[in-house]
Every structure is written in structure tokens, then in C-alpha cells.
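Customer ticket, subject: "Can you confirm the structure for adenylate kinase?"

Message body: Hello, I'm evaluating your service for our small team and ran a test protein. I'd like someone to confirm that this is what the system normally returns, since I don't have a reference to compare against.
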Amino acid sequence: KRLILIGPPGSGKGTQSPVIKDEYCLCHLATGDMLRAAVAAKTPLGIKAKEAMDKGELVSDDLVVGIIDEALKKPSCQKGFILDGFPRTVVQAEKLDEMLQNRGTKVDKVLNFAIDDAILEERITGRWIHPASGRSYHTKFAPPKVPGIDDVTGEPLIQRKDDTAAVLKSRLESFHRQTEPVIDYYAKKNMVVNLPAEKPPQTVTSEVKKALS
Ligand code: AP5
Ligand code: ZN
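Agent reply: Thanks for trying us out. I re-ran your input and got the following:
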């Protein structure tokens, strides 16, 4: 399966991805995770991306298209993939079509994590992540067994620098202005499945499985 996950910050893309990935043996490509790794490692890419990310703005289309083009070459992505957080602009969607066409393949479905903005601040400000794996927790909705510690590795959890109420506002603004048109782009091609992303994680998971069966 070749899937795109679209939704505002905190809508549950990163939470559902590992479940979908394991169920269908896909690779999980999250541009946000890849960019954060580049920022942490201070690579040239990371240095270019940091300023926009800290402000909650999108990094340039060329940068993320380059990352995805590279990542899609991985052997683990040949059977199928989950794109989490990409494409986020219509230009990125067009470039993706082109990249996949060149590889003789295409996207099967677009999962739209539909949710009201009002719910997202609590989700975002309560999130803790394990940066190496991308696993995320929530102080109220998905607490780790030991506060501040990753269940699997025992390593410390951190909060994302952009997970503040103030930066969330700008991330939501980018979503409505630049990413919602991407949903329309795929809706015109009848590829979009709407998920009730405000429901508990297990409910969202079963809706995903229904949509993909
Ligand atoms: P990115 O990392 O993609 O962030 P985002 O889109 O803002 O999405 P989030 O990771 O915040 O949300 P999520 O949907 O994954 O939520 P999660 O499942 O963790 O991008 C970061 C930045 O990188 C961008 O701002 C931009 O600068 C740059 N960037 C990335 N891609 C780009 C691109 N293509 N083009 C240009 N720039 C790009 O859940 C959130 C919390 O809620 C967790 O704590 C979780 O435990 C909890 N939770 C999840 N589901 C539920 C539920 N059903 N009920 C209750 N709690 C839940
Ligand atoms: Zn995410």
C-alpha cells in the first residue's frame, strides 16, 4: 500500500503510523522526524530548516521534495510506504505525482485526519517524544509507564521545541492556508478517506483498518 497521512498538528498521524506500518509491512517516512534529526545533527539541511520549523512555518518545497525523493529509494519502501506530513503544499503533491510516475507507481489512498482545531492545544502541549524512534506519548492520553522515560528503550523523553501554544497557532495557520488545498487536490481524484481523528486512538486505528481493507 502507498498511503498519505494528512492532518493538522496533533491530529494523530505519528501515533497511527507505527500501527499501520506493522499491519501492512510499509516504511514510515515522516518529513518532520527526518527534519528534526537533521536539525539535531546540525547537517546543512538541518541548518537550513531550523528557522522555519522553530517558527511553525513550512520549510521550502525543494528541501522536503529532495528528502522524500532520496528516502523512497530505500529497499524497505519498495513494497509500500506511509508518507506522514508530506505532501503539505500543492507543489509538493505535484512533485510527488511526478516522482512516483517516474518509478511506475502511484499513491493508493489519502487518510485525512479530520479534527477540530480546539482539541489540538491540549494534545500538543502534553506530548512527549522519544526522538530516536519517533514514538510519542501524552501526559494524559498516553502516559509512559515511568514519567519522562521511553517504555521500550528506557531512554529519556523530550518535548518538541515547536510544541508550545504560540507556535501551534502558526502551525495551524500554515495547515489551513497551505495544506488544506492538498486535501482538495486528492479529493478531486477520489482518493481521500476521512477519519474521525477526535476519537480515542483505538477507534481511529479500527477506522484506518476498515478504510484499507
Ligand atoms: P511534523 O513533525 O510533521 O509536525 P505536524 O504536522 O505539526 O504534526 P505533529 O507531529 O505535531 O502531529 P501528529 O499528527 O503526528 O500527532 P501525534 O500522533 O504525535 O512537522 C514539523 C515541522 O517540520 C513543520 O512545522 C514544518 O516546519 C516542517 N515540515 C515537516 N514536513 C514538511 C513538509 N512536507 N513541507 C514543509 N515543511 C515540513 O499526536 C499528538 C499528541 O496527541 C501525542 O501526545 C499523542 O499521544 C496524542 N494523541 C494522538 N492521537 C490521540 C487520540 N486519538 N486521542 C488522544 N490523544 C491522542
Ligand atoms: Zn507527527
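A couple of notes from the result: The beta strands are 2-6, 27-30, 81-84, 109-114, 127-130, 135-138, 192-196. The pocket of zinc ion (ligand 2) is lined by residues 13-14, 30, 32 (CB under 6 Å). Feel free to reply with more questions.
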